[in-house]
Amino acid sequence: MTRVTHQMTQRTALANIQTNLKALNTLQSQASSQKRIEKPSDDPAGTAQALRLRSEQRAVAQYQRNLEDGVSWLTTLDTALTTTSSYLRRARDLVVRGANDGAMGPAQREAIATELEGLRGSLLSQANTTYLGRSVFAGTSNAGVAFDAADYSFQGTPGSSVERRVSAAVTVRVDGDGAAVFGEGNDSVFAMLDAIAADLRAGVNTSPFLTQIDARIDKVLTEASTVGARTNQMTATQEANASRRLSLGSDLASVEDVDLAETLVNVQAQEVAYQAALGAAAKALQPTLLDYLR
């Protein structure tokens, strides 16, 4: 038979009080922080899962920033292409008017030539459109402009493109091919408008340029349709990314967060258990030295 001493009873009672107090402290801490996992030892498997989910959240947040930046690039690019298309259509109308030799005198030809030169300058401005200091038609070049205003040479990096990663496996191009849209040097749309203006002043019929203008308009429209498709892709990815962010937040909450109502009930129950342990210990440990001296 095991001998039960007063010291053994005391140690057991104190251990039970300490156990109940520790459990109560844990529940109170969870209730105040509303987190089930406060340190890795609370749930090693849950901690690993939470770390993985947080890593995915950071990646999704970065993709979201890339998407927002990419959409801004594409919006700037689309605006430049739309404006370019309208300028080219206006230039075509002027060329058709200037080709009417019978109705055009020197003054009218000069007026059309002057307006074409103004359109040339406007087109050059659109070709050198920038977003946050970067040309949207120059690829990865940091030259600041896509075309030189003096000789219309392309200042961008040939064959390069600006891309934004929108998922682990997908990147989307956000810039435009300036050399393909506007041409280069003497083959550029700017040089063509200069040539048209010169022919108008010289009294040369400008109707042969209509084919070149139509070809350039087609290139602008082709690029614009490509930009529109990329913008739609970006927008759809943004929506999917937003849904993924919500899903990850929900998954993380299910791993880390506590059920507050349940935790409060458990706190109250543990307080009762703690008070009961104190009461039991008080009764069990009542004997004092005076009790033995009696």
From TrEMBL:
Can you tell which superkingdom this protein's organism belongs to?
A: Bacteria
Question: Is Amino-acid biosynthesis one of the keywords?
Answer: no
Compartments where located: Bacterial flagellum
For this UniProt record, the keywords arranged alphabetically read as follows: Bacterial flagellum, Cell projection, Cilium, Flagellum
Instruction: Give the Gene3D superfamilies listed for this entry.
Output: f41 fragment of flagellin, N-terminal domain
Any idea where the Flagellin C-terminal domain is? 211-293
- The name this protein carries in UniProt is Flagellar hook-associated protein 3 FlgL
Q: Which organism is this protein's natural source?
A: Flavimobilis marinus
